[in-house]
């Protein structure tokens, strides 16, 4: 069905909202105020909403510009939903999403300005990704997934990535039989790493895996050729026995079940980790630290994100010497290190992280900070193991940086039980953040400040830092 609609507002996930005869129509690749011609592929009569595809912009918004990436947008790859939006307008878009979630889920009316990272305005929102995960087409070419689909769109460019990643020439290489290729090029200029993952090949109709004698040979040949062409880049091949080829690893996953087999990693060349460097200022002194992150482990994606978020968190919670701090969802120890330095020799910082490899990395990254204790396990379980203080709070400060699913009610209850003087909540999802802010409010913690950062330019994603303190709303 073809329709002409006027776009009313931004929705979630980088798409906008229009209405047709009272029904909500979700439209991608547009801007509020535009009049557009769209097609609704499945206009079910009893559906509450329809999903449309853009065909033609009849009256463009003044914030529309020529797309920076022709392989994204209508019919193309996902992951750059705002490539057609002027950069400042894209930050206003994200501000309105945060404001809408806070209003709807936390009952708060707040104007939030989304801050640009240094250098991003000059680069028009391009060249920021230090990590990119590509899907692999049947012929071994690298690509990305079309939105809301498993269709792989082969790519010739990746303009959101840093020039180091584009410079590797990886998009010209083929990885036959692979499932996923992750490219990591630390912002510090340290050695880059490519991780090529192979799932189980899809089974035949009789349930047998196809026996392709040439497969191993082709795989070896492509890996060897890449390693020879890129002697300065580390290369790792990963076999994932539990994953069928073509299926995606769920993002922001909870910690895994014990029945799953561990992936097998083969080091083809170089090293199975990258070295990241982060600088921040504490009490007027510049501090620079190195972090080792094992291949594929979590690290902030934007080249400037680790420094920006660490500094913002330090400034917001202002840890005092001797304070007791918990850093939840601590990853490779990025915030834990800065918090431990701030708390000094008489302080104590407890890091809680569920991923075994991230905990091993953080043990190494924080080895020179004797006041740090690391707990491996789900936050909901490990935090419950920290005794709640009686006269003195067991925790003065709590920081958390959960996956997109947020912390949730049980974790919020456990945090509040410690009566910390301040909570610093770093979030990559405005909806779960707003929901958790409401849980805090029900338990006597109010939102005292909120900053937001455009650390995923030209996508719908946005990073926020909420500060919560005890007191009436
Ligand atoms: C957004 S990352 C933040 C990491 C770190 N703060 C940083 O900036 O590098 C979230 C981290 O939470 C971990 N995680 C996810 N769910 C968890 C859970 N239920 N309990 C403990 N850790 C969890 C992930 O392994 C990941 O390292």
From TrEMBL:
Q: Where is this region: Disordered?
A: 237-267
| Pfam families (UniProt xref) | PCMT (PF01135), TRAM (PF01938), tRNA_U5-meth_tr (PF05958)
Q: Which residues form the TRAM domain?
A: 1-56
Q: Does the keyword S-adenosyl-L-methionine apply?
A: yes
List the biased-composition ranges (Basic residues). Answer: 245-256
> Entry's SUPFAM superfamilies?
Nucleic acid-binding proteins (SSF50249), S-adenosyl-L-methionine-dependent methyltransferases (SSF53335)
Share an example GO biological-process annotation for this protein. Answer: methylation
One MF term in the entry's GO annotations: methyltransferase activity
Record: active site: 428 (nucleophile)
Query: InterPro entries given for it?
Result: NA-bd_OB-fold, SAM-dependent_MTases_sf, TRAM_dom, U5_MeTrfase_fam
Q: Name the UniProt key words of this record, in alphabetical order.
A: Methyltransferase, S-adenosyl-L-methionine, Transferase
Positions annotated to bind S-adenosyl-L-methionine: 300, 329, 353, 401
| Family stated for the protein in its record | Belongs to the class I-like SAM-binding methyltransferase superfamily. RNA M5U methyltransferase family.
Q: What is this protein called?
A: Class I SAM-dependent RNA methyltransferase
Q: Which organism is it from?
A: Saxibacter everestensis
């Amino acid at each position: 069905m073809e329709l002409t609609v006027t776009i009313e507002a931004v929705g979630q996930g980088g798409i906008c909202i229009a209405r047709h005869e009272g029904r909500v129509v979700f439209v991608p690749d547009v801007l509020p105020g535009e009049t557009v011609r769209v097609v609704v592929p499945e206009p079910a009569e009893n559906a509450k909403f329809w999903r449309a595809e853009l065909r033609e912009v009849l009256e463009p918004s003044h914030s529309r510009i020529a797309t920076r990436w022709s392989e994204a947008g209508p019919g193309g790859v996902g992951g750059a939903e705002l490539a057609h939006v002027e950069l400042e307008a894209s930050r206003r878009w994200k501000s309105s999403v945060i404001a809408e979630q806070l209003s709807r889920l936390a009952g708060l009316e707040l104007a939030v300005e989304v801050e640009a990272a240094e250098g991003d305005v000059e680069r028009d929102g391009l060249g920021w990704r230090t990590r990119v995960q590509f899907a692999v087409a049947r012929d071994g070419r690298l690509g990305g997934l079309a939105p809301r689909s498993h269709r792989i769109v082969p790519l010739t460019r990746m303009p959101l990535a840093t020039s180091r990643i584009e410079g590797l020439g990886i998009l010209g290489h083929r990885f036959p039989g692979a499932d996923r290729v992750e490219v990591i090029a630390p912002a510090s200029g340290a050695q880059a790493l490519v991780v090529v993952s192979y799932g189980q090949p899809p089974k035949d109709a009789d349930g047998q895996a196809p026996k392709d004698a040439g497969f191993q040979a082709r795989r070896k040949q492509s890996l060897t050729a890449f390693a020879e062409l890129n002697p300065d880049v580390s290369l790792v091949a990963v076999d994932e026995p539990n994953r069928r080829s073509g299926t995606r690893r769920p993002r922001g996953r909870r910690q895994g079940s014990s029945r799953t087999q561990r992936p097998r990693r083969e080091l083809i060349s170089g090293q199975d980790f990258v070295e990241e460097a982060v600088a921040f200022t504490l009490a007027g002194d510049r501090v620079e630290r190195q972090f080792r992150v094992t291949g594929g482990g979590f690290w902030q994606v934007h080249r400037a994100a680790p420094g920006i978020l660490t500094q913002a968190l330090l400034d917001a919670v202002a840890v005092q010497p001797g304070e007791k701090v918990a850093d939840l969802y601590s990853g490779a120890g990025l915030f834990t290190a800065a918090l431990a330095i701030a708390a000094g020799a008489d302080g104590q910082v407890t890091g809680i992280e569920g991923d075994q490899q991230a905990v091993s990395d953080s043990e190494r990254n924080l080895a020179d900070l004797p006041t740090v204790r690391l707990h491996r396990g789900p936050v909901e379980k490990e935090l419950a193991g920290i005794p709640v203080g009686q006269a003195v709070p067991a925790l003065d400060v709590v920081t958390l940086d959960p996956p997109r699913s947020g912390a949730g009610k049980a974790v919020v209850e456990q945090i509040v039980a410690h009566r910390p003087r301040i909570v610093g909540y770093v979030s990559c999802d405005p909806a779960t953040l707003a929901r958790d802010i409401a849980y805090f409010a029900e338990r006597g913690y109010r939102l005292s400040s909120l900053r937001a950062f455009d650390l995923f330019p030209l996508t719908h994603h946005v990073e926020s830092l909420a500060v919560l303190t005890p007191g009436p709303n």
